[in-house]
Amino acid sequence: MLLTQEAYKKIDKELAKYPADRRQSAVMSALRIAQQEKGWVSNEVIQDIAEYIGMPPIAVQEVATFYNMYDLKPVGKYKITVCTNLPCALRDGEVVGEYLKEKLGIDYNETTPDGLITLKEGECMGACGDAPVMLVNNLHMCVRMSKERIDEMLEDIKKEEGQS
After folding, report:
1. What letter does residue 45 receive in the DSSP assignment?
2. Bridging pattern class, strands 140-142 and 134-136
3. Of the four, 50, 73, 96, 117, which is 20 to 30 A from 35 by CA?
4. Cα 1 from Cα 49, distance rounded (Å)
5. In what order do the strands lie in the sheet containing 117-122?
6. Splitting the chain (164 residues) into consecutive groups of 10 residues, what average pLDDT does each group show?
7. Tens digits of per-residue pLDDT, 30-75?
8. Interatomic CA distance for residues 94 and 115, integer angstroms
9. Do the domains at 5-66 and 78-163 have one common CATH topology?
10. Which residue numbers belong to the known binding site for [2Fe-2S] cluster?
């Protein structure tokens, strides 16, 4: 077992939501729980989840690789995902993405040298009317992101990390 007992208890709660013959329905939640605990989803974690749920490992791998919210390699403590789909792109999504690259000194799918921030390019986040949109750690949606708001967000991260 690769996860803590706490994580397996959370997965058990998700499994309890489905009939015994539909345990695979909890795979997305299990991957989310594992990623929250480990920071990313390794091949070993995928294998462990497959065994725990009772699914073929390839089926878990298919889910993990299909959805972009699962990280298949280590990421920074803060993962900033910028929506660059057409509605956001038309409302400066690409501009703010380029601004973040410049501010952080990294490209998409890279992590700052201190390991703090990973920058990702994301698919539609369903908030087109609030574009440009970013998602921090798959949990916190940031909307109408101007250069000024990005600066504030980065300052908040630095404060939280005691770097200001």
Report:
1. H
2. antiparallel
3. 96
4. 9
5. 110-111, 117-122, 78-83, 134-136, 140-142
6. 94 96 96 96 97 96 93 95 91 93 96 95 90 92 94 92 74
7. 999 999 999 999 999 999 999 999 999 999 999 999 988 899 999 9
8. 24
9. no
10. 83, 88, 124, 128
What are the phi and psi torsion angles at 117 (to 5°)? -130, 130
Residue 122's H or E segment, with its range, is strand 117-122
Binding residues, by number, are 83, 88, 124, 128
Residues recorded for the chain: 164
Model pTM score: 0.83
Domain 5-66 in CATH 1.10.10.1590: yes
CA pair distance 49, 7, nearest whole angstrom: 11
Torsion, CA 48, CA 52, CA 55, CA 56, rounded to 10: 30
Question: Considering the domain 78-163, what is its CATH architecture?
Answer: 3-Layer(aba) Sandwich (3.40)
- The domain spans of the chain are 5-66, 78-163
Instruction: Give residue 164's pLDDT.
Output: 60
What pLDDT does residue 80 have?
96
Contact (CB, 8 A) for 10 and 30: no
